[in-house]
Design goal:
EC 4.2.99.18; 12 strands; ten-stranded antiparallel beta sheet
């Protein structure tokens, strides 16, 4: 499932290429025909992400809410700008099984560098993948729930968990149920909401970080890495975590989220040499402390990393450094 940085990156594609333009909406699959009719021909006036959910505003009055869930993805085509980290990937960016290559300095002059518009295809989900140039607009491929089309760019949505048209008050109610997102609720207020919610609950911190009503945007990768970076036992009840440590978790989540949006990858290791940093950008195995490293030695103490199931999701941690 896409984590917060991926959804913010998708929202930025809409901000760059759709906001301020008239959008034609359709549902090639047919399952969203009614909703598409409501927004067809309207101007997109805003695009924003909160945690794992994205909201597209039309004509300053109605919104399209999208939650990609486990299988959803957006395919963009037309004149768009893919940043260099996206263009370097041999797999969709940001997912745990990504394999990619790092662009050389010479790549800045290529047609895949930052700021180079071209007619192409870009898939954005938990990973991102740049495809070959295609005629515009491309024919819909597969079960496209909704197509959004301007005179220069198209966006096709497949397989979302949620895709619905909402009124402003419904959007406000949906966002109110979510925990704080550092890119939306920055500053002391967002931090305090996070602290209050964690410190009021007997639930293990390893589960609280995945609870979108406690904090928005954290998924399985960031959960495991944040806990290790804090040397925090995932089984410790939230109410027993010292306040200063909860605040440190929020600050670290803010840092990692911003970095993920910038890079398009979940980079969670610090202090790497240039060579190791480039290797980490290219291979997930060199990018994380504990995630997906069951049975491998802890990078700090050498103890084998443990994996256990927690609320149906895999939880990775070091039994020595995190107890």
């Amino acid at each position: 499932m896409p984590e917060g940085h991926s959804v913010h990156r998708i929202a930025r594609q809409f901000q760059s290429h759709f906001v301020g333009k008239t959008v034609h909406a359709s549902s090639p699959q047919g399952r969203f025909a009614g909703g598409a009719k409501e927004i067809d021909g309207l101007e997109m006036t805003d695009a924003k992400a909160v945690g794992k959910q994205m909201f597209l505003e039309f004509d300053h009055r109605i919104w399209l809410k999208v939650h990609l869930g486990m299988y959803g993805a957006w395919d963009f085509a037309g004149d768009l700008t893919a940043d260099a980290t996206t263009a370097s990937a041999n797999g969709r960016m940001g997912q745990t099984n990504q394999r990619g290559t790092v662009l050389s300095d010479d790549a800045e002059a290529s047609n895949t560098s930052i700021g180079a518009p071209r007619t192409t295809r870009l898939r954005m989900a938990e990973q991102e993948k740049v495809g070959e140039p295609t005629p515009f607009p491309p024919e819909p491929v597969g079960a496209v729930r909704v197509r959004l089309l301007t005179d220069a760019t198209s966006a096709d949505l497949r397989g979302p968990t949620a895709c619905e048209v909402l009124q402003p008050e419904e959007v406000a109610a949906t966002i109110a149920k979510l925990g704080p997102d550092p890119l939306v609720d920055g500053g002391r207020k967002g931090e305090q909401r996070f602290v209050d919610r964690v410190r009021s609950k007997p639930t293990p911190i390893g589960l609280l970080l995945m609870d979108q009503t406690v904090v928005a945007g954290i998924g399985n990768v960031y959960r495991a890495e944040l806990l290790f970076r804090a040397r925090l036992d995932p089984h410790k009840p939230g109410r027993d975590v010292p306040e200063e440590l909860v605040r440190a978790l929020w600050k670290d989540w803010t840092k990692l989220l911003k970095l993920g949006v910038k890079l398009g990858q979940m980079m969670t290791m610090d202090g790497l040499s240039k060579k190791k940093y480039e290797a980490a950008l290219a291979r997930r195995d060199d990018r994380h402390w504990v995630y997906h490293r069951e049975g491998k030695p802890c990078r700090v103490c050498g103890t084998p990393i443990v994996m256990e199931m927690a609320a149906g999701r895999k939880l990775y941690y070091c039994p020595t450094d995190q107890t």
